[in-house]
């Protein structure tokens, strides 16, 4: 009973704090980076799709590590599933 | 596992269209919504459908592992050419005042490589699970 009451209490506190911060964040939004990307992406990178322009030109360093996540996951799965006398 | 004959027939019809759509999403990533990761996932579903068509066929997984590793190295090399041409690493390798059509060549090449890499990775994941579950 105490556990359930504590859980409900914590969830209510989370809801109140989250709604307060989100209402405060709506009132003062900084749009400088959005305006920069809308104006300059096509001439800088040559892509009409701004998402591709960001993840393959402005943030390519981030995107390479995103691609390396998959290779690490695949190597882990193959390591756990191979037989004892099998060499990959 | 026994697969229905209707499912096999429909899979044979759908297979080339799914491959075509996956390459379309991958190559046109800089013009329409999509890109390397999404197109690679679609290409991987085409290979998953081919397990319905010929379930007994044994595939060579070592070739796919080598392909994925070399694709990752190729992506690293293509993205770090810009250190020698522009002077800063991990951007477009063409000069900054070249034409827009020429700049989108870099995006197409990198999208294609990322698509091949992601599709081989997903194919490896579920092929390993299927081999394990036999």
Structure description:
The complex is a heterodimer of chains A (88) and B (134). Chain A is an all-alpha fold and 88 residues long. Chain A has one domain (2-26, 41-81). In chain A, 81% of the residues lie in helices and 0% in strands. The longest helix of chain A has 26 residues, at 2-27. Chain A starts with a helix and ends in a 7-residue tail after the last helix. The mean pLDDT of chain A is 89. In chain B, helix 1 (5-27) packs antiparallel against helix 2 and helix 2 (36-53) runs parallel beside helix 5. The relative contact order of chain B is 0.16. Chain B has one domain (5-133). The chains are: A mainly alpha (88), B mainly alpha (134). The A-B interface holds A 42-49, 51-53, 55-58, 60-61, 63-64, 67-68, 70-71, 73-74, 77-78, 81, 88 and B 29-35, 61-62, 65, 68-69, 72, 75-76, 79, 89-92, 96, 100-104, 106-107, 110-111, 114, 117-118, 121-122, 124-125, 128-129, 131-132.
Structural class of chain A: mainly alpha
Q: What is the number of helices of chain A?
A: 4
In percent, how much strand structure appears in the residues of chain A? Answer: under 5%
Radius of gyration of chain B: 18 Å
Percent of sequence in beta strands of chain B: under 5%
Uncertain regions of chain B: pLDDT < 50 for 5+ in a row?
A: none
> In which range does the helix fraction of chain B lie?
over 70%
| Multimerization state | heterodimer
Q: How does the major sheet of chain B shape up?
A: none
Name the helix and strand elements of chain B from N-terminus to C-terminus, one letter apiece.
HHHHH
Shape of chain A: flat
Helix content percent band of chain A:
over 70%
Count of discrete domains of chain B: 1
How far apart lie the N and C ends of chain A? Answer: 54 Å
């Amino acid at each position: 009973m105490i556990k359930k009451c504590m859980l409900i209490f914590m969830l209510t506190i989370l809801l109140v704090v989250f709604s307060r911060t989100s209402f405060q964040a709506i009132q003062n939004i900084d749009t400088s980076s959005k305006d920069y990307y809308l104006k300059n992406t096509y001439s800088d990178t040559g892509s009409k799709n701004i998402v591709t322009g960001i993840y393959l030109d402005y943030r390519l360093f981030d995107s390479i590590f995103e691609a390396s996540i998959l290779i690490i996951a695949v190597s882990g799965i193959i390591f756990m599933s191979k037989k004892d006398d099998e060499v990959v | 596992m026994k697969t229905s004959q209707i499912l096999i027939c429909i899979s044979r019809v759908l297979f080339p269209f799914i491959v075509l759509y996956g390459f379309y999403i991958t190559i046109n990533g800089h013009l329409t919504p999509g890109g390397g990761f999404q197109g690679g996932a679609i290409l991987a579903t085409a290979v998953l459908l081919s397990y319905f068509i010929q379930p007994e066929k044994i595939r060579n997984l070592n070739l796919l592992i080598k392909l994925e590793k070399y694709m990752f190295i190729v992506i690293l090399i293509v993205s770090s050419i810009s250190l020698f041409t522009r002077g800063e690493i991990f951007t477009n390798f063409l000069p900054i005042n070249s034409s827009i059509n020429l700049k989108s060549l870099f995006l197409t090449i990198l999208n294609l490589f990322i698509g091949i890499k992601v599709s081989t990775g997903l194919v490896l994941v579920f092929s390993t699970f299927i081999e394990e579950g036999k």
